[in-house]
Amino acid sequence: MIDKIKGIFAKKEEEKLDKITIFIGLLESYLKREHPNIAFDLSTFKNRKEELKEKNEQVEKTLIIREVIKQFSDFVWEKTTQKSAKKELLWDGYGINSQPNKKVPIDFARRKELVFLKEEGACNRCGHKIEKVERAYIVLAQSFEQNGGYNLENLILLCQNCYTLTTYESSNFKELYLRLREDLYDML
Questions:
Q1: Smallest Cα–Cα separation from 163: which of 128, 137, 134?
Q2: Residue 56 and residue 18 in contact, taking contact as beta carbons nearer than 8 Å
Q3: Rg (CA), the chain
Q4: Other CB atoms closer than 10 Å to residue 180's CB: what's the count?
Q5: How far apart are the first and last CA of the chain?
Q6: Inter-axis angle of helices 57-74 and 2-34, to 10 degrees?
Q7: How far apart are CA 161 and CA 153, in angstroms?
Q8: Are 149 and 100 spatial neighbours (Cβ–Cβ below 8 Å)?
Q9: Is 142 exposed, middle or buried (0-12, 13-18, 19+ CB in 10 A)?
Q10: pLDDT digits (tens, 9 = 90+) for 133-184
């Protein structure tokens, strides 16, 4: 009788480990597809079978998600100027409106759309494919103090998550609204 009870509990533990392994596999697949420029390391969770026996499955999944978000926010990325645009894509007034000036040029929407098309909608930091130009954000590779202007080579395309992380002053990423956090918690 005792052996049967032990067998039932052993199966439950194996089932829990399998669910975590499946969750990690799904998570890795999602991250490689949605954020290909960032190499997430989930190996510490794959090798924690003994620790998992004492923890709740939901708690463990939540800890994994927190680690993913931490790695996403800690990803080191440097702003660099982009490849130059073809001259035939430029328009009258492009050069004048590209000068370093804190005032946003009147043709900024056109510049944003051109950068979006040139980068094929991919975030420069994480590689996420942005579906619509309206959901894309633009930052300057070189600030105005560094003589950076609104020329196309100086405009960097970012997704909402990366824009929030790169423009937020505090190092506490837990306070930030990140769409990534919502998407990952939806996987629970």
A1: 137
A2: no
A3: 22
A4: 23
A5: 36
A6: 20
A7: 22
A8: yes
A9: middle
A10: 999 999 999 888 888 888 888 999 999 999 999 988 766 667 788 899 999 9
The 8-class DSSP code of residue 122 comes to B
* Whether this model's pTM surpasses 0.85: no
Taking the C-alpha atoms of residue 75 and residue 66, their distance in angstroms, rounded to an integer, is: 14
Q: Comparing C-alpha atoms, which of 49, 38, 27 is closest to residue 125?
A: 38
Residue 36: CB atoms within 10 A of its CB come to 14
What is the per-residue pLDDT across 71-130, written as a single tens digit (0 to 9) for each? Answer: 999 999 998 887 777 777 777 777 777 777 778 888 899 989 999 999 999 999 999 999
Amino acid at 107: D
Provide the token pair at 50.
């003994």
Contact 52, 14 (CB under 8 A): no
Using H for helix, E for strand and C for coil, what is the string for 54-97? CCCHHHHHHHHHHHHHHHHHHCCCCCCCCCCCCHHHCCCCHHHH
Q: How far is the C-alpha of 186 from the C-alpha of 166, rounded, in Å?
A: 24
